[in-house]
Amino acid sequence: MSKISAILKARKSQLKNKKDGKINKKSSETSNSTGVHKNSGAKKGLQNEVKQFLDKSQNETPESENEDMTMDDFLNGDFEDSAVTEPTTLQKNKNPSPKDQETEKGVSKSKKNRKEKVTQEQEESSSSDEEEADAEQYQEQLDSLKEKDPDFYNYLKKNDSDLLDFNADAVLQEDETEGGKRSSVGKTEITMDMLSKWRDHLNNQKSLTTLQKVIQAFKAAAYLNEDEGMNLKYSITDSRVFNDLLLLAIQAVPRVLNHHVPVQTEKSGRKIVNTDNKILSRLSPMLKSYGFSILRFLEGMTDAKNISLLLRETQNVLPYMITYRKFLKQFVEAVVEVWSTNRDDSVRVSCVLVLRSICLTADLTLLEFVFKHMYLTMIRICSYTTVHTLAAINFMKNSSADLFLLNPESCYLVTFRYIRQLAITLRNTIHQPKPETRKLVQSWSYVHAIDFWSRLLSRATWLSREKGIAVEMQSLVYPLVQIALGAMMISPSSQLYPMRFHVLRSLIYLSRHTGLFIPMAPVLFDVLDSPELSRKPKPSTLKPLDFEVEIRAPTAYLRTRVYQDGITNQMLELLGEYYVLYATSIAFPEFVIPVIVRAKRFAKKSKNVKLNRSLLILVQKLEQQTEFVLTHRAKQKFSPANLDSVETFLANEEWDKTPLGAYVVVQREIREEQRRLLREAILEDQNHKEDMRQKKKGALKNDDDELNSLSDEELE
């Protein structure tokens, strides 16, 4: 009985392997040369019993098996497909004659030639019919076994009940029975009924066979109307079926995978799976196909809601694909591209969440690849900065800094490498001051790189101070400050003052969050003493320059009142932001003496009334802040042995409640309102220009006389 049970198990395993396409055709000569000689005694005792069983349970045998297969062949056979592999002689003599050897060589040679002639299309067309015939034949044997041999049936029911649970429809699950339609080219057309049955099987039974079908159909949808989709099994012609299939694939597949191979979440938020799980190894080809199908959809989708849904559901599958390095690299590149180019906020947030999930699960090598690709993509996008792209650039900087600090070790390596690259670029510009080398420093990419690393190091300093991590990142603050100061002084031209103001803002941000002193007053005094502010400006009707989205002032703005007023506002803003950092410092009275003396001296010589008035107001606020600090300092008793009181001086005092702090807060509100109005004016002007371009195109297309009525100034 156990021998017959083993035969049935092998038969069942053969049918399942055929459906999955994983049958490894082996030569029967190697397996039979050892099995026949070792087990010949046992086989003779089983031949009669097996023959009786086959006579009872099998009414009809395929012609090829009746004519060519003997009882020894059945016991020793590896159940290969007779349509592809020719039956060979199984019994061999221990010392075969030369004639037998030549015969065996001829058989193996003809067998090899026959395999080479069989094409892939013939295998695919014949496999489905053979699988259906074998499945139905095996099902009939099981159905008749209960009546013809009840004792053996009870034995199987008691010891091997899985054999009796076999169902041809459950293993093969023919698409026609599920509502599918067979097309003229041999493909199965997916219908709503088929999707409904698949959904029931996945939700109720968590069937892996159905999962494989859904993934195959998902791949057909990904390569729809493309050459790569011509050889796939399924076809889609209905848009409703296409949409429902996408929802089923991206939502049900993670649930079924989690049922068979659960995902474990660590305290750090990292999601892992047991890679030694046998089911996971079996699902490896399916997961790779599913991953590249997702990648295909991500590259071709344009709708923001669909992209967000796809990325959100993909997070649940990533722990199973963490070992597929080729797919992960391509997937990271696609997600980063969407993150940097898509204008929808929900899509960008979904991209950040996906990248965060990868960073929490990936190793150091993959992390370095993710960080490097994000940084280079961000710098490439930042090279074109306008009022429309500024918000997206700031989002990229902030989200990148958060992701980088998920792993301080990899973050330090990447940060060190690219800060060093900035230093090398600056050194080459100083040693070879050519226009080509200066463009590398005096560019949006260089300025945004300094600003990004300032934000990153500021957050790293906070983490090291509050949580004790990323301590090694503080050592990179000094070289970054030196690079920033050198980039500002690389050219004293007043045309590059906007770039200088951008770098100063980055340094102020870095100083505010790290608590480090950075000497920025000399750079601001250099602007104050420049000829651009001391000379009499030319009248101009130009609109105000938006310093936030400009790195180099246009030539038309130089020595104009508009540009002079803009520089004045920027300089006063940065002076206030710089000195308010130390508003609660015990050394503030001595710290502001140079700027007070310098400002009063400039006001006596300058003929710029507006600048003088604004500068004296700032001096007045600095003096009031000095009196405020001196009043509180007089109440304290300090000694060299009591330095703790110096560190806690005005620690409980809010900086925005001090005289200088209140002034800076009001100035921030005024400037924010001015920037809002300026941006609205710029957007309105750009929209007007776009309308003029559209009218021009319409006039040219329709051959209308409207083009003659538009002036050149309106078209510009």
From TrEMBL:
Per UniProt, the ranges with Acidic residues bias are: 62-71, 121-137, 703-716
Q: Which family does it belong to?
A: Belongs to the NOC2 family.
- Enumerate the UniProt keywords alphabetically: Nucleus
**Natural source organism:** Schizosaccharomyces cryophilus (strain OY26 / ATCC MYA-4695 / CBS 11777 / NBRC 106824 / NRRL Y48691) (Fission yeast)
Q: Where is this region: Disordered?
A: 1-146, 687-716
Output this protein's name.
Noc complex subunit Noc2 family protein
Listed Basic and acidic residues bias regions: 17-28, 97-107
Compartment(s): Nucleus
Q: Where is the composition biased (Polar residues)?
A: 85-96
Q: Which Pfam families match?
A: Noc2
GO cellular component entries = Noc1p-Noc2p complex; Noc2p-Noc3p complex; nucleolus; nucleoplasm
Check the record and name the InterPro entries matching this protein.
Answer: Noc2
Q: What is a biological process (GO) this protein takes part in?
A: ribosomal large subunit biogenesis
